[in-house]
Amino acid sequence: MTASRRLRVVIVGAGFSGVGAARTLADSPVEVLLLDRNNYHAFSPLFHQVATGELEPEQIAYPVRGILRKLSNVQFVMAEVKQVNLTKQVVEIDEAKSVAPRGSLRADWYACGPPAGNVLENVDQSLICYDFLILSVGSTSRFFGVPGAVEHTFPLKTLQQAVLLRNHVFDCFERAAHEPDAKRRQQLLTFAIVGGGPTGVEVAGAQAELIYRSLVQDYPTLDFRQVRVLLLQGADSLLPTFPQKLQAYTHKQLRRLGVEVYLQAKVSQVTKESVTLRDGRSFDTKTVVWTAGVYGNPQAEAWGLPTVGSGKVLVSSTLQVPGYSNTYVAGDLAALGSEGNFLPMLAPVAIQQGQAVARNILRQIKGRNPLPFRYRHQGSMVIIGRHAAVAHLGKLSLTGFPAWLLWLGVHLVALVGVRNRLMVMISWIWSYLFRDRFVRLILPPAIRASAPTHSIAPQQRSE
Amino acid sequence: MTASRRLRVVIVGAGFSGVGAARTLADSPVEVLLLDRNNYHAFSPLFHQVATGELEPEQIAYPVRGILRKLSNVQFVMAEVKQVNLTKQVVEIDEAKSVAPRGSLRADWYACGPPAGNVLENVDQSLICYDFLILSVGSTSRFFGVPGAVEHTFPLKTLQQAVLLRNHVFDCFERAAHEPDAKRRQQLLTFAIVGGGPTGVEVAGAQAELIYRSLVQDYPTLDFRQVRVLLLQGADSLLPTFPQKLQAYTHKQLRRLGVEVYLQAKVSQVTKESVTLRDGRSFDTKTVVWTAGVYGNPQAEAWGLPTVGSGKVLVSSTLQVPGYSNTYVAGDLAALGSEGNFLPMLAPVAIQQGQAVARNILRQIKGRNPLPFRYRHQGSMVIIGRHAAVAHLGKLSLTGFPAWLLWLGVHLVALVGVRNRLMVMISWIWSYLFRDRFVRLILPPAIRASAPTHSIAPQQRSE
């Protein structure tokens, strides 16, 4: 590091923790570079409502550059990271998957030594140098080696996956509506959700409401008694981290909505046609939603970071990578605590950790010691359906209408962007008033992306 | 035809005319089958606002089944048509591109003869029989044989194309922001729109507002004097069908917004890197939007229908195909009048024709003669930008604020679905108040659709 330039902080990932860190570093005496493969920050707690046609994907996505507009010391590059070298303090961008070409930043981001002015010659321009690094790349789905799970299930970890699932469900109904074979129709109308944690419960409830309240009006010729929404939970209860009373309530509410809940139902295999449990039971289905497990990030290991079994990065209490005092991990990727007892992978944890690592970096710059991270838990909430949710807030347990209203309110406030909030609120009110789902669109129809322009298209004005 | 069953009307295409026809046939003594390759009806007059980040694609798409909910005698099949046999009265579905499997409809739709009950054996189930056929497949882009135009331009005839253009424009800016080479940066920041008709004008104006009012805030390091929005019009004036006064106004307003208007600028070639005019001038660009021409539909000719040079189907004054009194064409595909003097390809024409052919079919069933189609022209309008539009309503010509307000009002009312209207209205108000565009999302990033799930992703709650 040289005294002649401002210190550089590279943040990898613009999720809750990455954005939290960037905001905290705003207007401080550092140069910040935020990297993400998408140009938007997505609000993952509402993915299940995109997947079930309640919300439009754009309503819960916010352009990263929009967030950074007022943060003059934060730059953004849409890029995927290929490699991280903690010793050389270098992040290597995967140029094949990124928009940033070589030499895209000011020269001193590449000059990994004394500042070299603007001379870019003899400098590897795919390497970005940093003084501090924040890794906040989030988590991915964990498939526990179940055969076929990677290939044939629908995870719900990205906004794109939510749209894919939505399109797929509507496609299944379109096919079922014209499927003369009863067995194949049954298969198309069976929807299995693997995992009885918060996401699994939320997807199952939303799916059931979509089907039995909205789609039932679209397909008058289909027999909706054939439709099955299965929630396959490996453990003995739904929402294992919640009080027993809330678990029972959740179970009851899901059944009321028409969801078949299977406990101790461990999935042993998934194929294109079915999902099979360890006890031999099998369900013919074209739709297996995978919410059963999360994995820190396979890349972290490839980058040589110390990981635990679940792919998370082991960090000190200050969220630093042991041995590298200038390298922080925040959000889902951080393994803080002891194995099996890590902090939950919740948005509030990620946001607080992002802010904490940023503050720790600012402390280090001032010559102070970084502080241990302390999570202020505000509670956990799960929405099940109309007027149905559970909230576990310390000693307080809420169910039903108050929990449901609280869930909506908390998520509305947490959304980034006033316009997004307004749009989501209107979508919710509309769905509520009309007991319907309105984004019943197969858009874009991924399968037919290469369809010729001359096929059936809606009319448009000519010139 | 036999007296024992209701007559069957097949409508191909759920655009303005197809939906107009289906609605008119509701509750009449016929069975209607509506075919479209998408499960939604898209409102094409607002495609340019999707392409420029003002509206979300879902806001102007409406599920076809939602439109049909109250029409008990109308069925929908999401399918692409492969062949039409007017003599045998059969529509052949392209099974590879359609969700409807063989035998998907009730047996009598396949039994092209006396009703065969529900026996589907010995019947070709990809063939759908009709008593009356309405072809309303719309129009496609016409490239006039310009080399490279098919491969390298962005047409704006489908909702998907609008989203593709939006994503591409934002991608260009992301790349430009980090492009050290001034020439390549200039190329990324040059946006050419080919065609000075209504769509070309609307795209150019919206593009300029997006760039100079909204994106300028996202890219503080870019020099926006480098940005060029080119409108390349082959004719001597913009909006050739409008009065000269409105043409001059449009020209002036576009220039005020920063659009460079080129008249008598006929495109001779498009490559991945540039667009070249017949007079030899060339512009380096990655973005060529093609609004210069429309073609009826190449399929119509393949189906053996009598077409004119522009790919439209020649119809009688009653919109019937000559020689086939039970076959109608409505909307952009219909060539009514004399070559060079066809009715304009406007939504109102399509809607009115859809209704007219439906009424003519009902007349035929009652033993009456079909009536000639009479177009009630209500006027033409083009939006240019904030407080800027032109409206040509008979002898009345409006510009500026009143025309702009009228344009917004008319398009808002014409949208299908109250929720869509509300969402679009709020989007407009929001854009207006904040002088910004809010859907600045590269979503889904088409290029990276196959990206592994373990790459940088926003954090999400775990189970």
SS content category of chain A: alpha/beta
Query: What is the subunit organization of this protein?
Result: homodimer
Shape of chain A: globular
How far is the first residue's CA from the last residue's CA of chain A?
60 Å
Low-confidence stretches of chain A: 113-122, 446-463
* Tally of DSSP helical segments of chain A: 12
Summarize the structure.
2 copies of one chain form a homodimer. Chain A is of the alpha/beta class and 463 residues long. Chain A is built from 12 helices and 26 strands.
Features:
homodimer, 463 residues, alpha/beta, 6-stranded mixed beta sheet, 5-stranded parallel beta sheet, 12 helices, 26 strands, globular, disordered C terminus
Can you put this structure into words, describing what you see?
- Two copies of one chain form a homodimer.
- The first copy, chain A, is of the alpha/beta class and 463 residues long.
- Helices cover 30% and strands 23% of the residues of chain A.
- The first copy, chain A, contains twelve helices and 26 strands.
- In chain A, the strands form eight sheets. In chain A, strands 5-2-1-9-22-21 form a six-stranded mixed beta sheet.
- In chain A, a hairpin with a 3-residue loop joins strand 15 and strand 16.
- In chain A, helix 1 packs parallel to helix 10 (347-365), helix 5 (159-177) packs antiparallel against helix 6 (182-188) and helix 7 runs parallel beside helix 8.
- The longest helix of chain A has 21 residues, at 198-218.
- Chain A is globular.
- Residues 113-122 and 446-463 of chain A have low confidence and may be disordered.
- At the A-B interface, strand 3, strand 5, strand 10, helix 5 and helix 7 of A face strand 3, strand 5, strand 10, helix 5 and helix 7 of B.
